[in-house]
Amino acid sequence: MPSKRPNILLVVIDCLRADRAFDSDRSARTPGMQALAERGTLFTHLITANSMTIPCMTTMFSGMYPAHHGVRAMVGARISDNVPLLAEILREHGYHTYAEATGPLSQFYRLDRGFDQYEFRDGVKSPMLGEWGDQLIERFRSGAFEEPWFAYLHLWGVHRPRQILPQYDTPEYGRTQYDRAISSYDSRLKELFAAIDMDNTIVLLTGDHGEKIPENNLENQVEFFKKSLSSKQTGKVTTRWAKMRKQIIAGIREAWFKTSRLLYRVGLVDSPLTTITGHGYHVYDSLVRVPFVVAGGPTPGGRRVDTQVRQIDILPTILDLAGLTADIPDAADGRSLVPFMRGEALEELPALIETCQNSREPSSFYGVRYGGYKYAYDAGNPGIPEELYDLAADPEETRNLAKSMPQKAAEMRQLIEQHIARVETTAVAMTDEMSELEMAGLADHLRKLGYVE
Question: Whole-prediction pTM value?
């Protein structure tokens, strides 16, 4: 018999861009995602709170902006035990909670709080496209999870190194390796959704953040160069040489970043990050605009919402769908999106965004997306030009209007400054009590993933 509360499946695909999964000009083939969206509500413009995994997932599980929950860097910062998390709230109300986590989401960050089972795997060695994925789908098909359940599934294969099924590694399934990885994962998601009782399960699909991928020959060459530097060497490698090599790579990356900024400043390139790929360093839509689909259970189908919504809204929305509106934490910065799903209109609110450093210190680079404009600036470095884009006229964010529209730039900057002043109550400090052993283990884990040198 159906449980009193619906089962909830939250699928997070690392680095999943909204445009590459759902926009009409996409080259990836996504029939599984499209079918899910047709069954429910597709939010085409969910804006993430950051452009790196750990701050974003902490936001998703707390409903709080990074400046509020305090996790604003990949190294050293982790959520305070005093901040209620999504799985904790659901478990308190009878949910059986399961997590299949990967990437940097180890228990170091305490995001396992509230999960009855928190399984952490190597997303490359145990991919959704392989035997592990077969076993996971069978667990859902056979009813291995005790109802009512909340399951969090984090998938890694769209993230570098891209995982592509051999039959999907052709232009028919995407212009780039990134797009073909999306096509490959879509085929597996289709199998997963078919194994679930959708009448009694609410499925939510999103990305933690986006990804800047090589789009031209120059960027492809730079990407190849970086990959050749970063790839593992065969044969005997001395510790001294390995350490020196990492320092050289870090130096080249930093020099290239500074060079890109300089070329932009003198007007030789349209963007300060022309040849920089990946994520974490800026607030462009390619990095922070992700899809959000809610389908299954009693949710109405066939709705598309183009109004901007925010990553901080995910926790309130899930709790509302579970019938737990009264239990949305007072400290949460977001709001439920269920009214949108009923066809009601809600006022668009500013989406505040931060970038992330691979260090213990938070970034000083901020952005805000609101009223059809995107504004970004570095509060800690006035030498870096501020940026303003008209997203309707310039969705690719190539024409910086900050100098020609100073009043609009000032208005947008004030939104950021007011936001920081209001929510910077820092729930966790950078001096949190991680032991030296924990820090060493975390640094080694992030190093293997390529986050730190």
Answer: 0.86
